[in-house]
Amino acid sequence: MQRGYAAWARVYDWFARATASVGGVRAGCVRALDLDPGDTVVEFGCGPGVNVPALRAAVGPTGRVVGVDITGAMLDRARGLAGRRGWENVEFVRGDATDPPIRSADAVLATFVTSLFPDPYAVVSDWCDLADSVVVAAFAPRGSRPANAALSAFARLNGRLFDVDGDDPLARLDARTTAARRALADNSETLTEARYLRGTITACAGHSRPVAPGE
After folding, report:
1. Hey, is 115 helix, strand or coil?
2. In this structure, are strands 133-139 and 107-111 parallel, antiparallel, or unpaired?
3. Phi, then psi, of 199 in degrees rounded to 5
4. Domain positions in the chain
């Protein structure tokens, strides 16, 4: 996985920034975290740091953003971005999301990461022990036929990343997305869900405390 993402780091960085606002997924995920100024938020699978500007805006100058990624090349690009922009309340840590190098936080975000784990239920359950709010965005192959075709092709091209060894990559993605959602439901007091891009992407938010309407 590390070799695969390292090889794609430059292209992924460009693609992620070019599509950051498409469908409102990233902005919706940050809103769903229900962050307050001064909070600490951890992003697992932070990649080149595309979500960091929105997270920093949510926690303010007194808050803290910690990006965790297993791929050194991705972190190099994220740290370069932070250095160019002079971010002093952002830290990037190399680590495995299945064995978090973080012991506690106010919130956890993960976008398009849980499909990489053989056991997303266990991983997301552990995240719920770290933070009051956990938001997970993932592919949900229940949308339009063209979108499903694109997802299937993407999964096959990146078979080693997604651990796709059968003839139905969409079923594998769907199962892992469902497992992550179930972990949030089982380990949170409240669960909300939003769908984007004709249902192809789902964002689930689990909170260990009630969230006021409109938050």
Report:
1. helix
2. parallel
3. 80, 5
4. 2-207
Tokens of 146: 């063209």
Are the beta carbons of 127 and 110 closer than 8 angstroms?
yes
Model pTM score:
0.82
**For the packed helices 52-59 and 25-32, what is the interaxial angle rounded to 10 degrees?**
30
Residue 78 and residue 130: Cα distance in Å, rounded? 23
At 16-72, the pLDDT tens digits run 444 445 568 889 999 999 999 999 999 999 988 989 999 999 999 999 999 999 988
User: Alpha helices of the chain — where are they, by DSSP H?
Assistant: 2-18, 25-32, 52-59, 72-85, 120-130, 145-157, 159-162, 169-187
Architecture, CATH, for domain 2-207: 3-Layer(aba) Sandwich (3.40)
User: How far is it, in rounded angstroms, from Cα 1 to Cα 180?
Assistant: 20
Token code pair at residue 37: 């100024």
Bridge partners of 69, per DSSP, are: 94
Beta carbons of 52 and 35 less than 8 angstroms apart:
no
Question: Residues 150, 140: contact at Cβ < 8 Å?
Answer: no
